[in-house]
């Protein structure tokens, strides 16, 4: 269906640009400018100048003593996985996804979530490595910054003032993220306008607009749950009973070299289509990640070994763009892979 | 293709509402509110309170002496047609469209445009009637308010301040419209954000969102030109040579009773789909008519026999919504009418 591929290109030609870079602003935009030139256009931007320079966190959060002191009586939730890939697709056999079986053999694995004293959480995250049998990532996305991490509130703004004025509301949720260089988040989208502020280290985003939905190969995968057995230091992966299906993006943008060819054959619309937008968000910068954009995230820690970020989720408008998206997604368009390596199109119209 | 009809409904359920009424504001919105709640959503609104009360025109333009005095040395363009339907579909034989031949026999007829002293133009518009063989409508859409009608500029605002601030620009064009109750404009869309201010009389709009494009049955019609022969008081209609095709909406929302059944059979998606939004704009009110919305307009004069309006065209953003629209329009979906009266679908996918 050539019209769908024309749509990918036209959105870039008209509005997003054909470079893979995200528009950079040297200072926070005025609310009206932010609304007109970015939110209304569903177009990302990176505020690289003076975005959070005034936050006490900018200096304080590089000091672990400050963090452990502030949170000395707090317990927080850490997410444990064998490889740092929380909320991602793994073979039902529980191994890593690197063996690339046909999608039917994959499940959507949620991390083992554990609430521990903050000092212990920080220790687990720091200790995370290929050797440690587990990777710990503090990434509870339930407004945790205003609950579990309440004592840190005074170190940051409670909202992004120019965004709150533009969007006409305060954030629906504010989340804190503490990870190391093993932590990554697979491609997905959120139904929020997202302002993502990095405080220490760097976050690396791959971004695709909602119009590229067919390139994500969203399929239903059975929900599964990791449990970490402390005694043996091993993970158990169990599919939820009764079975529950989660629609999730099938594409891993960085397959291992030995899998690259088979992944490119399975997901040609992703690997052969326009390159995703790329954006590294450095400490002190804020990324505006528009609602409904698909994003993949990995990170680089600072010299203390941590990447710490705060993100603000604002309610999105379920408007004409959203209805257009649902219409687009309702049109089936996937080159079907068969094992002769040839491809044919299926179109449900 | 059921997905297209679901789109019509979802846009109404999520954003526009299922009533046929347009959202009414009792006072002009703040720029940020206008941008967030209407422009960004591509959603119309009617500013019914204090929109143009401060314009000298509100009082002055009900006085013909004022108009003829101000424009005593101006000549303006009037558009002459046999029936008040400028820029509309008529049978190539030149009769009125009421005989409803198959679309192939219709052409897109432009009015006979004539530049005359303003007093004479006003006289022609007032004299327009079924008896007068012609209907005159001053509806030159080339920024005429700032050119032909320059001397009236001081009677109105040169732009709509809250709209200019929201949209970040001044109007690209400002047009004046002087008509009587025979003047009407067939369904079409404009690639502008439109602020439409009625000064005397009333304008009656039928509105359909861009997502309803298939309901307009847009087809290519040969361009034709009316010429009015003063001596005989008759119109000649000639198809342009070399032939030039104009894509235009095929639907007449108010067919004559004897044609209603055949029109409903030809255009079932329009007549059987969701009702269009209806909006009467009274003197002193401003309609925000979003870019890309299909609109049909007729009018009721005030007691002086005239309907006078000023509209401000602002540049639109060619953004993701516009790309989605082009994608939607590229999907062919028209129940094909055959003369047994049965229908089948054609789908180009």
UniProtKB/TrEMBL annotation, chains A, B:
Pfam families: Cupin_8. It comes from the Eukaryota. SUPFAM superfamilies: Clavaminate synthase-like. InterPro entries: Cupin_8, JmjC_dom, RmlC-like_jellyroll. Residues 136-329 form the JmjC domain. Belongs to the JARID1 histone demethylase family. This is JmjC domain-containing protein. It comes from Eucalyptus globulus (Tasmanian blue gum).
